Amino acid sequence: MSRQRAALGKSLVVNGYLLPLKNDAAKEGSDTEGDEEDGDDPQFLDLQDMMSVSDGAVSVRSSSVARRFVKINDLDSNRTYKVFGRFHFTDPWWKVAAKIKCIQKKWYLQCTSYSLRSHLANQRKEIFSLFLTACNVHEQHKKQFIETLTEDSNLEFSNLLVTLQRIADKEATQEPNFATSIIAAINSSVAGQYVQYALKFHNLMEILPKLLPRHFLDILMPKEENGRVPRAWHILEKLEHLIQTAVWKLGFSQILSKELQLIGCEASLLAFEEADLMKTIPELQRHALVIYDKLKQTCWSKGHTYVQVDELTALRSSEFSVQSAWESLKFLKDSKIIIIEKRRVYLKCFYNYEKEIASCIKELVNKPPWRISLSEVLTKASTAEQMEGLPENPEHTEEVKLDSYQLKAAIMMCENPVTVISGKGGCGKTTLVSHIFSTVVKNMESADNEELLQACRDLEQDEWAPESWDIPVGKTPNGDSVEEVDVRKVSVLFTAPTGKAASLLKKKTGFNAYTLHQVIWNFWATEKSIASGKPHDWMFSDVQVLIVDEGSLVSVCILSTVLKLLMQHANLKKLIILGDVRQLPSIEPGNLLSDVYSSLNRIRWSIELPTNHRAESQLIIDNAAKIAEMSLKSTYKELQYDAVMHISKSIDVIIPTPDKKFILVSLPSIHNSTGADLQKAIECLLNSKAPGLDDDETSQFIAFRRTDCDLINELCCKKYAGHPIRNHKNKFDFQVGDKVCCSKNGYVRDFTQQSEAQTKSESKEEKRIRLCNGEIFFIAEYKIEQVKNQSFHYLLLDDKDNRQILVNYKSVMKECRLQHAWAKTIHTFQGSEAATVVYVVGSAGRQNWQHIYTAVTRGRQRVYVVTAEDDFIKAVTAKSPHRNTRLRELLQEKIREMEPTSKTAGLLTQQEPCSVLSRLPSTPEVAASAQFDSLMPSVQGVDDSVFYTTNERRKDNGKMDPQEGDSFSADLAFAQDYSWSPQSLEFENRDCEVLKSTTAVHSSSLQTSGGTTSDIPVTMTGEEVASSNKVSTPCGSKRIGNTVEDVKSPQKCSKISLVESPLACKMFRQLALDCSPPRHNLKVKQLFKEGN
Fold first, then answer.
1. Where do the UvrD-like helicase C-terminal domain residues begin and end (predicted)?
2. Residue 453 above 90 pLDDT?
3. Which of 279, 339, 498, 1005 lies in disulfide reach of 346, CB 3.0 to 4.6 Å?
4. Which of 897, 920, 935 is the last residue of a domain?
5. What would the DSSP string read from start to end of 568-625?
6. What pTM was estimated for this model as a whole?
7. What's the pLDDT score for residue 107?
8. Mapping DSSP to helix (H, G, I), strand (E, B) and coil, where does residue 643 land?
9. Is the pLDDT of residue 731 over 60?
10. Quick one: 723 and 748 in the same domain?
11. CA-to-CA distance for 693 and 685, rounded, in angstroms?
12. Is the pLDDT of residue 843 over 70?
C-alpha cells in the first residue's frame, strides 16, 4: 500500500520509534558542511520589537537543525523507513509521527511530532542508560541506578523522577546519594528538560514542531552564550492552552506578540495544511489565514507594500464566497493584523514603515535649518569639465574638480535637510560627499578643541570650583596647552546596506562606514547592556548626518528603523541618500530610492549626476544608458560592442585584445543551443586567458540563475585553484587559493595572534569580529592545531585589501556559511564592483532590463555579456514589474502639509546652537548658494514616468493630471520658502558696472529663449556662481521679477551679528538679527539691496 502511495506521489504518515544509525550514514547526503551544525538564521527586529523585548517580551530565533538520515520503525506495518530530513530529536527514547514523501526512491520528511516512548520492555536498561548519559550523569551513579532495575520493573519516563525521589528518600542517610545526584543532573540538562516538557505539554510537542519547525527548539529552550536554558514555565503553559483552544492564533505574529509576548514567529498556511489542521479551525479564521497568506505572498514576491482588495476577495471562490472574504478581512482589520485604506490592503508592518519614513523626513524638515558654508566646502574644489577621480586620501586633497551637476548636488547637500543623489558608477557621488563632509568634520573637530580649551581655562580661573573638578593637564610639545584626547563619537555616519558596499564606501571616502544592520544591532546591544546593569553609551548617539550609499538596495523596514533610532536617540539633522534609481530595488517589499527620489525631485531636493568621470568605462556607461532607454521605449536597439566572440562548433573563437571594453560572447540561438554551450563559453574565456580574466582577484562572474553560478564555480575552481569543488564525499571542499564569501552575517573569533588553548583560558567575554554577508575572501592558509588530543582547523582569510583574519573552520561555517564565490547571482553581487565583470544572461525567465543594467554597471573597466541573442532581446526589453507602494504619496502629502509660515521662514533666527554643527561659520556665499538653488534647472535624468504610479501617469494627450500639477506647484512653493534665510537679504555692495558686465556674461547661460533655466558654465568657480546669481536682474532693481506688486521691499538689514554668551563659550553663541523676518504672505525668495 505504501509503495502505491509513493508511486502516486502522495504523502505517508508513519508512527514509530527511532532506531540508532551510524554517524557516517546519518550525515550522508548532506549538501554542505554547515548543515552538520545547528545554525541560527538572521533575525531582524525593528524599533517597536526592540522596545517590546526591553519591556519583557521574548524574541524567538529561527534556527535550522541538522539534516540527516534516521530509521523509523513503523508500528502499524512493522516496516523500517530510512528518512532524510531535519529532525529535532533523534534519540531512541522518542516516538515520532512523521509525514514522509518518496522522491526518486528516497524518503523525505515533511513534518513530524514527538512523544516519549512507552512500553520499553526488554530495552528498558539500554534506553535509560543512554538517556542518563545524555543528561551527563556520573558513570558510577548511572551504574548504581541501572542495577536497581529488575526484569519485571515497570519503570517508564512518566514515573522516572518519582522513582528516583523514592530511592533518594529511602537512602537519605547515605553519602553520596546517587538518586539525588541523578535528579539534579536531569533537571539541569537539556535532554532532561525536553523529556519533562514532553511529559507536561503533550499538545505543544505534537503541534509546535509541525507549525513552527524552525522556532520549536528556541521556544522550548532558547540558546544563550553558555548553551540552551529553560524557557519560563508560564509561557509554555499559555502556549499549551492556546494550542488546545485556538491553534489558528499561531498563524498571526501580532496575536502571539500581544497574548504570549513572543516576537518573531508565525506559522505559514502551508504548515497548517501539511499538519491537517485546517478542518479543525473555525470558518472565519480559516478564511482569514488563506487571505493573510495570499497578502504576504503577493507582497514578498512582487515587492508590493499593499494589494488591491479585489485581489483578495476573489480567492478560492469554490471554497468561500466574496461575502465570507469581506468578513475575514474585517476580522483581520479588527485584530490589527492588516490595515485597509482606499480599497488597499496593507500588511501592518509595511504600512508603518513607509509612514514612519515620511514622518521622519517631515520632522527633519521642520527642524531649525542647518546650512553648511558652501565657500568653505569649495576652498578645496573648483569647477571644471571633468573630475580625475578619487585620490587615495581625500583628506589630503588640495583641489577637487567638479562639474556643474556636482556643484548643484553640493549646494543641495549644504542647504537641504534631505538630499537624494542618483547616478551611475563613476559619476562621483561618494567622492563629492566625502569632500564636503571631510570639511565639516574638520570644522567640528577644531570647534570642539577650541571649546574644550576655553572651558578648561574658564574652569581653572574659577576660584570657587571644588578641587574634585580639577582637570589633569598634560603638556604637549608646545608646553602651553592641554593634551588633546579624541573621545568623539560618530557625527557623520556613512552607511550601506551590505558589508561589501560598506567596505567599498570606506575605501572610497576614507571615513569609517557601517552597515545599516550594525547601527541597529549596536543600539540593541546597548539596550541589553543597560538592562543587565552595565550602562554603555550608544556609539551613534551623536550622529547629525546620515549618509546612505547604494540606496536602491535599502529596504523600507531597515531605513525606517535607522531613521527612528537617530531621530529619537541622536540629533539627526541631514539625510543624504546615494544610489542609482535604475538599478534593481531591494528584494524586500517597497521601492525606497525611486519613491524618495521622485518625490523630492519636484522640490529640487534630488538630482541626477549624468557625467562619467572614469575614462576607461565610458563605453560601459553608454551601453547602460541604452539599456535604460530601451526599457522606456520597449524597443530593442543593439548595444555597441567593440568585440564579439562567437561560440560555435564550426567557427574558431577569436580572443579580443586587451583594449576592448565591452565584449559580447554570443551563444547559439535558443533553438540551436544545448546545455553544453554555456560550459564551452566559460571554458573558452578561462583557458584562452581572455583580457581581465587571468586574475580572479580583479574579475567576477555574475549570473541570473543559481544553477549557472554552480556550473561556473565548478569550472573556475578547477582553473584557478586546481581542484574539484566537491570532495569524494560530495561535500564542498575548501582549499588554499579558493575564492569564498559569507552567505550570511555572523560573528567569529579572530585567532591571528592567539591559539585555541589561549582563548579558552581567557575570560568568557571574548571579542569577536563581524563578517558581513557578501564579503569576499581568499583562503591564504589552512592550519591544523593539536591541543590535548583534539584537532582544531583554521582558515586564514585574506580580502586582498590589507585585512587578514584567522578563523576556526567549524565556527565560520556555522556562523557565516562560506561558499565559493567566483560566480555570484546578480542580487548577491549588487552593491559591489570589479574591474572585469562577466554577466551570464542565461534563460530570460523573469529577468528584465534592470538585471542587465545592474550587472553591466558592476564593471569598472571591462564587461563581458554571455548570452544568446534571443534571450538577451527578451530580457532587455522586458518591463520591470510595477510595485504598489505608498511612500511616494505620503511624502507628497507631508510636503503639502508643510505650508510656509513666518515661523518657518524665520527658523534660522530662532535656532539654538545646541550642537557642534551649528557653530560652523556662515558667510554670504551660503545665501548665494540658496539663490543658485532656486535657479537650478529641473533634473534631466530619468523620465518621470518611470516613477509615477498608474493613476499619476501622464495621459495620452500629453496633459498632466490636475492633482499632479497642484502638488508640484505647492511643493515648489514650499521649497523656495524653506530655502529663504536672513542672509539672503545681505550682499556686499558691488559696483554697478561690475553687475552689468557679469550679467552680460552669464544671463544667457542661466536663461534660455524658452524661459527655462540651463546649466551654469562648467568653468565657473563656486564664488563666481554665487555672484552670477546675485545679478540675474537688471541693475537698480529692488526685487526680482516674481515679486508681488502689493508687497513692499523690506527695510535694509544690518548684517547678522554674534552675541557673546555670559560664559564666553562658542556653544552658547546665538545668531541675532536687527530686523524681523518677512511677513507670511511674502512670496519672494530673493531680495537685493539697492545699489549705491
1. 820-866
2. no
3. 339
4. 897
5. HHS---EEEEEE-TTS---SSS--HHHHHHHHHHTTT-EEEE-----GGGHHHHHHHH
6. 0.76
7. 92
8. strand
9. yes
10. no
11. 7
12. yes
